Amino acid sequence: MGFRGSGDFHVFNRFIPAQEGEIMPDHRTHHLVCKLILGKARPDVDRYVDEPYRWLGAKHRILRHDPISIFVKYHDDPEGFFAGMLHILTDFGVSEAKRKSRKRSGRRKKRKR
Which pTM does this prediction carry? Predict the structure, then answer.
């Protein structure tokens, strides 16, 4: 989309670089993770966390994908807070797995004979 950021997220999750075409789990995956760990899905939390996708596209993780933002929104709802943190961890896990698979599937060097 039209957003041009610095390429990194802010200080709380700087280790997750923003990349074009980065794979993101769908909400069904987030719901499944929440059901497995918390006992029920929290679609309201997933909608809140991913709402910036509407105007930022793949770079939407620069907003609302850090512990501070989740705490500010859900400070009075512990289940919502943990659902938000699971959302962030799920995003990170899927992105990291995809990044590692890209490295492995890259061009291989020819063996010298």
Answer: 0.69
